[in-house]
Amino acid sequence: MELAAAFFLVACAATGFGVTYLSGVALKLEERLAFGVVLGPMLVAAATFLPSLAVRDVTVGTVLGGLAVALGAGAVGLLLDRGLMVADWRDARRRWLRPWRAPGHPWPLLAVLVVCGAWTIHFLHQAYVYAPAGLYSGYINIWGDWAAHLSFTGSFAYGHNFPPEYPIDTGHRMGYPFMVDFLAADLVPLGLSLTQSITATSAMLGLAFPVVLYLAALRFTAGRAASTMAVFVFLLSGGLGFVYLISDLQHGGLAGLAHFPREYTLNRDVNLQWLNPVLAYLVPQRSTLFGFSLVLILLVVIWIAIRQESGWRPFVFAGVVAGLMPVFHVHAYGTVVALSAFWALFNLRRQWLPPDNTSVCGDLAAIHGFCIQPGWLSFTDWQRNGVWLFGFDFGGFWIWNTSLLLPLLIVGQALGRWFPTAFPKWFAPMWLWFVVPNIVVLQPWPWDNTKFFVFWALLGSVVVGGVLAGLLRLGPLTAVVAVAMMVLLGLSGALDLARASDFDQSKVLFTDPGGIKVADWVRRNTSPTAVFAVAPEHNSPIPTLAGRRELIGYPGWLWTYGLADYVQKTDDDNKILQGDPAAPDLVRKYGIDYVMIGPQEIPRGANRAYWEQHGTVVYDDGEYAVYRVR
Fold it and tell me: What are 255-284's pLDDT values in tens digits?
């Protein structure tokens, strides 16, 4: 990593550390450090966005200017509580210098950081690998989802995308929570490439999350064992798909342990739908790196403020941070609002939602376009087996997909006395985030209801950790039961995480050398605001590596974003590429500056002969050709 970029990230963390002293609650030094790694980048991203918006570009000046403002806010926090900072340091030093067996020693926190950090660093160092054959992605969901994040980041860093609009569907304001990608764009003027900036910001926030979860669980459960188990209950979450490992070993022998042949938490052929949250959310949907941690941080602040009657400052602090959250993670914003002010669950602000509901309900009943599908993805099971078996099919589906998570959560609600705190009661409203998405499809793609379920699982893992810790305390027999339950809860997820970190098994070619080369040429030789007609593939090198706008991008994303014009635009894009008689009018209509024809466009009928006559060749390496058309 370039030294300037490394300094920037360290300065972000330092900013966040200082900002925690503005919260008005007494936090431990470890909490200030971990929470600061999330709050600091959040504040810096917001502070650098404003000057970038003013000058319509991301430059060294906008980055350093915004960073200076954010550092100033952190410095104010430190100056206001200088004495408290010294006391925090002395308290931490006293606790860490105790014998590690002493009650309250923080060593489990270090264990969580080392174990989770080792996997995270190994996984992300191979997120993008440049090889003679081209650019490889280290995991299928990086190959898929990070293409959108590359496009968003590149549009800020190279494409002057201010005010932000979708670079993959020009003309629409960007409703996606884009700030995690804007933060990555800040690193580009400091010397990092797009792929490096995406990886660096994911690494920083990814390393922080397990620590934040542990520290939040420690506040909610007041137990180190419960907190440690909560971390691994969530991060290793998965169903009972590990049973297929037996047949895999029978067919492939012990070699199957070196390279697992399948995913064990996601197999739609057998209705395994609960892809491990790390691989479903923290890796591909980068905004959750902010969202999950911010939910926990703000709930901790509110939790402490209520229990310690800390006055108005914590609530103002939480309100300001929550007010910024929609551009960082929408569902996290809703979760914080729902738990801190329950009535607001039914008054979510319309402007943070996609512009259109593109759900297709077919024969299903609907409410204002949202499909009614009782049982979520167990719907087809009870339809096939009969409504009288709904309870068995529904319960079986969730145990099959999440193992013992649901029954242990129910036990945790019933055994509130096992908890030295009132957290099970605090958690109770989160059952709505389980019940409602099991009735109503809240997203265009039904599987995306997991965006609600995952917060139920995130906070529910704290309850489950408390139950397992209680079993450990009861005696040797129940301790064995607790360990067995941990294996059942986490084995499938552990297998999938191991498989995902196996580069030889999981790598996918993102683009070939020609794609890298043409993207570099486009970035250096075309206007930052140029619009391209290219194949609407998710990994087109023009939006992902060159940072340029395209007429229309991958339809699967645009449908889930609620952008309903993708059907017409896709048809018009094909007509332009194919040299249809309507192509000149469509070029004028959409303001197309360039047409690129390469390996992704040829199968769609792209007509190089037409554009040789009706455009000006400005780049041609035999595989990729770029034509200027205006």
Answer: 778 889 999 999 999 999 999 999 999 999
Residue whose pair of structure tokens reads 């939006």 in the numeric block: 543
The predicted structure's pLDDT at residue 221: 94
Q: DSSP letter for 547, please.
A: -
Distance CA 321, CA 333 (A): 10
What is the pTM (predicted TM-score) of this model? 0.93
The DSSP code for 281 is I
Residue 71's contacts (CB-CB under 8 Å, 6 or more residues apart) are 11, 14, 15, 18
Cis ω for the linkage preceding 132 (within 30 of 0)? no
- Those residues whose C-beta lies under 8 Å from the C-beta of residue 530, and which sit 6 or more positions away, are 548, 549, 593, 594
pLDDT at 382: 60
Report residue 546 CA to chain centroid gap: 23
The residues, ordered by sequence, that sit 6+ positions from 585 with a Cβ below 8 Å of its Cβ are none
Q: How far is CA 116 from CA 96, 362, 495, in A?
A: 20, 43, 15
Beta bridge partners, 616, equal: 628
What is the C-alpha to C-alpha distance for residues 155 and 528, in angstroms, rounded to an integer?
8
Tens-digit pLDDT profile for residues 139-197: 999 999 999 999 999 999 999 999 999 999 988 999 889 999 999 999 999 999 999 99
Q: For the chain, what is the mean pLDDT?
A: 91
Report the run of H or E that residue 510 belongs to, with start and end: strand 508-511
Lookup result for tokens 């030093």: 93
- As a dihedral over the C-alpha atoms of residue 32, residue 38, residue 43, residue 49, rounded to 10 degrees, the angle is 160
Q: Three-state DSSP class for 618?
A: strand
Q: Which amino acid is at 573?
A: D
DSSP 8-state assignment for residue 351: G
Distance CA 548, CA 551 (A): 10
Sign of CA dihedral 272, 278, 282, 283: negative
- Percent of the chain at pLDDT exceeding 90: 75
Closest CA to 611 of 517, 533, 550, 530: 533
**b/e map 285-315, b = 16+ CB within 10 Å:** bbbbbbbbbbbbbbbbbbbbbeeeebeeebb
Count CA within 13 A, CB hemisphere, residue 489: 27
What span, in angstroms and rounded, lies between the C-alpha atoms of 542 and 434?
Answer: 40
Residue 296's identity, in one-letter code, is L
Rounded to 10 deg, the angle between the 313-324 and 287-308 helix axes is 160
What is the DSSP code string of 99-160? -TTSTT--HHHHHHHHHHHHHHHHHHTTSEEEETTEEEESSHHHHHHHHHHHHHHHHHHTT-
